Each structure stands twice: as structure tokens, then as C-alpha cells.
Amino acid sequence: MIKIAVCGAYGKMGQEVCSAVNMAEDMELAAKIDIQGEAYRTIAEANNACKIDVLIDFTQPKSIYENALYCLNNGIKIVIGTTGLKDEEIKTLKHLSENNNTGCLIAPNFSTGAVLMMKFSQMAAKYFDNAEIIELHHNQKKDAPSGTAIKTAQMMAEAKDSFKKGNCPETETIKGSRGGTSYSDIQIHSVRMPGFMASQEVIFGSSGQTFKIRHDSTDRKCYMDGVLLGVRHVYDKNDFIYGLDKILD
User: Fold this and answer.
1) Is pLDDT above 90 for 248?
2) pTM of the entire predicted model
């Protein structure tokens, strides 16, 4: 049995993860970690009290990096669903994971549909010189842009250096109205509004046509198969992975 700890266990995603782990025949929920409810308050407290094979983290951007550092320095494999990690932080975690031989999977999105949306966008990027990303989330999401949007832009950027072919010089009369400029000049627009859970649309354009790829998540259960897949992967393979697309068949 894989001994699982869930960090952020009483959040909306954390509760779904706990339920999914409890239903998995090859896993045992060994510890809940959260600042509220009947839970351990820190990872260190849980680690001292019980055996943890894999920690699943769905907390907040301000705490995920320190959580991951603790795990990788203390022999706890980790599956990270919390977004907001900086590029340099991801590089450090990769280095720690490989040096300490401790599995780490960072996935901006655990939905198979969202992963396919990213892969299809990467494919389409070869055939279009202009593209922008609109991501839409509920108004309690604390980081912007989303990790999914950032990962999508990174994958698209492998195709070319800029997605602003032929754009005229721009002047923003309201700062930020064109969104944020990311990899290969891909503009990312973040919407935060009640009524959304998680959606993303990638828009490609060329002379006489536009092409859109969109994914919508309407229930957090759609992430659970991906989370459990990630747990099984780091437990068995013990490597560093960035993006669920790397382990999907």
C-alpha cells in the first residue's frame, strides 16, 4: 500500500483528493495536513507521526515551494497540484529530486482533457504565426496567470520564437489591457470571476481564419484520475516530471 499524505486536505481540491485516495485499492490515506480541521498542522508534524511515501500538495502559491523543499530533503516523494511556482524554483526542485533520488511530479493540470488541449495547442503552433491564450477561473484563485496557461505557452514556444507576426506597434491606453506577455510573445489574459471553475481557450490566427482550442472543467472529480496516476508514477519511477503529458500513454 502506498502511504499518502494530503497537504491542504480541507480545501476543495484536498477533500476530493482524500476521497479519491480512500477509494484507491493500492493507497492508504496516512495523514491529512491543513491549518484547519482535524489534521496535522505541518508536514514535519505528520512525518514525525507516521510513515509517508507520497505527499499530494494542493495548498497555496505562497507555501508550495517550502513544502516541496521539505519533502525532497526528507525522502518524501511529492505530487504537486498547486500552481504558482517560478521557473527558477522548478529548476531547484528538479535538481533536488534528481540529486536526492526522490520522485517529484509537478502538474499544472491533472485533467486529461486539459492535457490534450495543451498537446493539441503545441501541435497547432507549428502552423500558425499568431496566438493568444485566455484562461478563466473562479475568483478565489490566487495566482495569475494559471499554471496551465504558462505550461501551454511553454509548449507552444518550442515551435517558434514569436507569435506576433505582423502585429503593429501597440499602445495601451489602460495598462494591462493586452494581458501579459509570456514565452515567444504569447499574450495571456486571465479572467477571475464567480461561476467559472477552470477554463482555457487558445486562439490561433492567420490570414482569413482563426482556430480555437478550448477546455472547460466543471467538476473537480475530473482531476482525480490524473492525480492518482501521478502518485503511482513517482512511487514506482522515482523521477522528476513536469507536466502530466509526460506520463500519459
Assistant:
1) no
2) 0.81
